[in-house]
Amino acid sequence: MNRLLAILVALLVGAAVVAGLLVVGGPGHARKERNDQTRLDHLRRIGAHEQCRLAQQTAPEAEVPVHCAKELPVVDLRDPVTDTAYEIRQRDPTTFEVCARMETDALKPQNAPFSQLHFDGKLACLRFRQRSSDKVWIEEGAGD
Hints:
Elements: H1 2-24, H2 26-58, E1 87-92, E2 95-101, E3 118-120, E4 123-130, E5 137-140
Antiparallel strand pairs: 1-2, 2-4, 3-4, 4-5
Helix pairs in contact: 1-2
């Protein structure tokens, strides 16, 4: 009887572990989500760099934001996991986007309500727009 009970408990624990992995996705899925979060961080850094680059090209020196150093730091434009280049697309003089291929849907607006990313399949883009009123660059939300 004790042996049967031990077998049933072991099976129940095993089933619970398998069910948990199916719901959460396991360590492989968690790694992909971390990779996507790293990509989002890179897109924001590249976006800030691009804003400074554009300001230095177009604005009088007195109007270049203080946080934009005279010499812009080098920014890595490659995905650290896949070694593919991130895309920077100038849509018009006052808007641009920085894009990367994501591995999961975790950052899509339906899964992350405050996500600023615009998705086209697995391609996710952060869009930046320069306000005409004060020339400040802002991140456009996915619902904008």
